[in-house]
TrEMBL record:
<dbReference type="GO" id="GO:0008260">
    <property type="term" value="F:succinyl-CoA:3-oxo-acid CoA-transferase activity"/>
</dbReference>
<protein>
    <submittedName>
        <fullName>3-oxoacid CoA-transferase</fullName>
        <ecNumber>2.8.3.5</ecNumber>
    </submittedName>
</protein>
<dbReference type="InterPro" id="IPR012792">
    <property type="entry name" value="3-oxoacid_CoA-transf_A"/>
</dbReference>
<dbReference type="InterPro" id="IPR004165">
    <property type="entry name" value="CoA_trans_fam_I"/>
</dbReference>
<keyword id="KW-0808">Transferase</keyword>
<dbReference type="InterPro" id="IPR037171">
    <property type="entry name" value="NagB/RpiA_transferase-like"/>
</dbReference>
<dbReference type="Pfam" id="PF01144">
    <property type="entry name" value="CoA_trans"/>
</dbReference>
Amino acid sequence: MSGFNKVVASYDEAMAGLKDDMTIIAGGFGLCGIPEGLIAQIQKMGTKGLTVVSNNCGVDGFGLGLLLEKHQIKKMVASYVGENALFEKQLLDGELEVELTPQGTLAEKMRAGGAGIPAFYTATGYGTPVGEGKEVREFNGRPHILEESVTGDFAIVRAWKADTMGNCIYRHTAQNFNPMAATAGKITVVEAEEIVQPGELAPTEIQTPGIYVDRVIQGQFEKRIERKVTRDA
């Protein structure tokens, strides 16, 4: 694999180097835009003691929820966890450490980490349990808390299209956490719905430049509905 072709042929190769007690930053929102195959590979590897940073932890039996089945996650940093009964059980049983973070703060933690910014001030969370024990400074008459950025040993993201050099574009709401997550990993692995040749993506459309990406794999995805709600006509 040359520096100009980052495509790998197998999930084993895609996640090579992942070890116990590492930190993984995962893109996606709910079940939208999640790197399903990479998550399944982590479950297959049985890697344990993981710290996972993602908006949520999937649902029972799908997405990041798969990693709870073998108790592979030691700590979860997320903004929403309400769709996963196993997550709730492990939390209440003291088997899982959870750090709940406001959604915008979590996105900025990833973005700042990828930009080399170690911490930032935000008014969000001041005066709540989120702000307890954190440094406070006042800006323009309003108190702000200091939040540390995050980086990971691995970042796993899902792209709509990626070229062989790792340049990526995302589709619709998959744009929310994936671009930030992609910048914040020491090793960033992209699972793409479609892989194209260099030059096929318009430069103005690229949302993650290939400089951030180490590996690209062709994904096979299952479209799931997180919560189906119906009503009588």
